[in-house]
Amino acid sequence: MANSSKINTPKHVGIIMDGNGRWAIKNSLKISEGHKKGVSIVKDIVEESVKQDLSSLTIYAFSTENWKRPKAEVTAIKKLVIDAINDQVPELKEQRVRLKFFGHTYDFGRKVIDKIDYAEQETHIKKSKLDLNVALGYGGKQDIVDITKKIASSVSAKQIKIEDINEKVIHNASSVPVEDIDLLIRTGGDKRISNFLLYQIAYAEIMFVDKYWPDFNRKDFLKCIDNFKKINRRFGKRK
Ligand code: FPP
């Protein structure tokens, strides 16, 4: 949630890391090489987020729609997630970065689930410097379906009354462990939200960057943060 005393500094940045495939094709590489390069950019942006004193960074690693991709690509992404956790967890711990995964992660199979559990346990810290939230097997629409089922079953079990449903109840019913996004960045040149955090991006400032994710760098990231600082965020108020 944006803090009014620091209204111009983004505390929570979300990123749709698009363009790995097109970057790979442009460089005559396999698609999986594009994703691999993409992971190395995540490492840089996490380091920069710590430096910039963000409290959360939420990235879209795999959407519910990405299951429709070729099996070999999905397998390569699963392996990348495992490799990234093995490589990055020690450095993340050093930086006091707390990792959390959200989405239907159980669809990724035992190996990935166990690795995610390990990463979350290893990086668990009460007062983190940065929360790195990874959306994996996530869809904003799916999340709304899950929330609706959860609240509907609470209503039918008489644990909550319909008139008591409010934004807090919806937030608490969501399995997505993130607050509202301040700044949302999408790389890759397309100007759309796809199926990212639909509920949590109300009032987010949205920036579309005309570069493939593997070409995105710290300077580009700082430019987005700088542009954000110049925005007068009114949240519907007159001021
Ligand atoms: C979008 O590019 C990227 C993805 C769907 C996958 C990104 C996944 C990673 C970088 C792995 C992240 C894992 C961790 C643990 C950080 P695209 O393939 O849709 O690009 P295109 O639009 O050019 O085809």
Keywords:
239 residues; Undecaprenyl pyrophosphate synthetase; six-stranded parallel beta sheet; globular; disordered N terminus
General description of the model:
- The chain is an alpha/beta fold.
- The protein has a single domain, classed as Decaprenyl diphosphate synthase-like (Undecaprenyl pyrophosphate synthetase), CATH 3.40.1180.
- The chain is built from seven helices and six strands, in the order βααβαβαβααββα.
- The protein has helices spanning 20-26, 31-51, 71-94, 110-122, 140-156, 167-173, 218-229; strands spanning 12-16, 56-63, 97-102, 130-138, 183-186, 205-208.
- Strands 3-4-2-1-5-6 form a six-stranded parallel beta sheet, with helices on both faces.
- Helix 4 links the parallel strand 3 (97-102) and strand 4 (130-138).
- Helix 1 (20-26) packs across helix 2, helix 2 packs parallel to helix 3 and helix 3 packs parallel to helix 4 (110-122).
- The protein is globular and about 55 Å long.
- The two termini are 19 Å apart.
- Mean pLDDT is 95; it is low at 1-6.
